[in-house]
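Subject: Arginase structure
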Amino acid sequence: MRNIKLVEVRSEIAAGTRGASLGIDALKIASLDKTSDFFTRFDPINVPDANNFLWRGNKHPNAKYIDGVYQVLRNVHNTIESLRMDKIFPIVLAGDHSTAAGTIMGIKAANPDKRLGVIWIDAHADLHTPFTTPSGNMHGMPLAMCIQTDNLDCQVNEPGEDTLQYWEKIKKIGGDSPKINAEDIVFISVRDTEEPEDYLINKHGIRNFETAEVRQKGVAQIAKEALEQLKDCDQIYISFDVDSLDSSISVGTGTPVPDGLTVEEALQLNTELIKDKRVCCWEIVEVNPTLDSENLMAENAFDILEATTKSLVDNF
């Protein structure tokens, strides 16, 4: 277990609803309810958040709390870079999905010469920028940060100068170059996108395995095809957003969307994908117990976390 570290990121400033910072503790409560010793087996690292920015009011309508998001992403980048340089496998438990950009930046900084692929299991594409976002919520922007796009072809907003200074600084965390190629992103169950995101998906030919395709081909085949899609990558990072689950299950998350995965499909998918020796980091995000009843989302999410970690340990 020495080579696996839990990384806890209680950031929620980039989400549209409050409460995602409580998701990690909800997972811990779920583990107690299931009498699991999971959280005693790994030493956690707690990455400092910037949730105190929420009290200051938002000065950046097209990229809410971007000043705080910048701080958190740097903190996550530094933590992940140092773990990966020591060849440690981070299992990241995070609040809102924006922090995934810091994770990707850290992985890349530790091994700049290795080509990094991303498997993004999510209801959303998270390819917005301050120029295209309909909401200003930055948990919809992490992949755009990592491919260093502004997507000006689809511009609808005029972000302020202060906002753009932070946006430029964020894109350059871990080095001033794209951390991943857009072609090296694979989506699974993405189903709630806006036109600017569809534009980038089509432009770069990003593969999306829709929920219906998962049902039709079966989870094992989808895992195989997703990994095959990234055959030219040296490393793979898997990010699992619980809103990839169907909205009948994923009540305890900020942006539930119908027509998603079942818990069993998500569990099988993650346990299968993590067997690939190129996978170097796995992450679960967006559990929000304040939107839930009986902590159900966290209990389902914990089952997936525990099973995926067991699969990793068994194949390490």
